[in-house]
């Protein structure tokens, strides 16, 4: 996390800006900025103020402006080769064989599944062997003997009554393997999604909140008549607003090559980020953000600024098969092995063919 400090003028406060990889023109999610102006919240705002007019550089967000947030502290990659290298995009895929077997067999969830499976095995075993024993009893068997067999049969039924629905719920509802098979897309669907996001319109929006902390005193009375007083601060939000970065053009500079069809299926995680095309765009970006902050920062004692980046059609991830048909990805076989209490080994076999891929959508914005 990088930090820069700004001293605007004698009538302005000192602002601490905390960048979390975004908000400086190369971000992808949220940058949080918190500042506390000097003086009380009754202090008159700097803009609009006849004694302190807004600089001309801030009145037009698209002019060539040197931002007071010191854009020289940040760096921007503009060449496509630099962008691809910076993304660290893994297009070939990462095999998760060992991780899949560990998740299915040796993790906490794997141990819980083993206990559920063991309970089902005990229940079905009691039912089977006690039924066989019951069938082999002689006709003159005593009442007590038949009662013991009946109790063991009832105990097996009780175990199955609770354990078997839990097992079915895990296999056909909670299992990650089942979710992947049910939502699995085709190879063409994955490529169509990449093309759609490449054509998607990007947008950068700043969300601002102005607030102050109120000291609250609460008196709590217990049933026995004793009371205690608690003091705590409460955040009171008095204003919220947002501003969208205005740019004239954009270009998709995401990796152009297709994802390599490795493994039997791929779990693709998508990320989105933006870069600013040139110096003029970076200065316009900083000028728009600074004008928005300065126009509203004195509405209360403190404020926070959050930045979001959106792309039309963007999804956080997809699961897609690499071939049109695969034996291990057949849902019928999954159901068969699930009902046969072979869910864990079959899930391991399925997930041995999984490849995890990280793909970055990159938009270059220009003014």
Topology readout:
Elements (H helix, E strand, L loop, with lengths): L1 E6 L6 E6 L12 E4 L20 H4 L20 H8 L2 E6 L1 H10 L1 H28 L7 H32 L1 H7 L4 H12 L3 E20 L5 E18 L4 E4 L12 E12 L2 H18 L5 E10 L5 E5 L9 H9 L3 H9 L2 E13 L1
Parallel strand pairs: 8-11
Antiparallel strand pairs: 1-2, 3-9, 4-11, 5-6, 5-9, 7-11, 8-10
Describe the structure.
The chain is of the alpha+beta class and 367 residues long. It has 2 domains: 17-34 and 79-98 and 184-366, no CATH class; 102-162. It contains 10 helices and 11 strands. The protein has helices at residues 56-59, 80-87, 97-106, 108-135, 143-174, 176-182, 187-198, 279-296, 331-339, 343-351; strands at 2-7, 14-19, 32-35, 90-95, 202-221, 227-244, 249-252, 265-276, 302-311, 317-321, 354-366. The strands form 3 sheets. Strands 4, 7, 8, 10 and 11 form a 5-stranded mixed sheet that branches. A 4-stranded antiparallel sheet has the order 3-9-5-6, with helices on one face. Strand 1 and strand 2 (14-19) form a beta hairpin. It is flat, with a radius of gyration of 31 Å. The two termini are 27 Å apart.
Q: What integer value in Å does the Rg equal?
A: 31 Å
Shape call: flat
**End-to-end gap:** 27 Å
Unreliable stretches (pLDDT < 50, length at least 5) are 1-90
SSE class: alpha+beta
Number of domains: 2
Please tag this protein with its features.
367 residues, alpha+beta, 2 domains, five-stranded mixed beta sheet, four-stranded antiparallel beta sheet, 10 helices, 28% strand, disordered N terminus
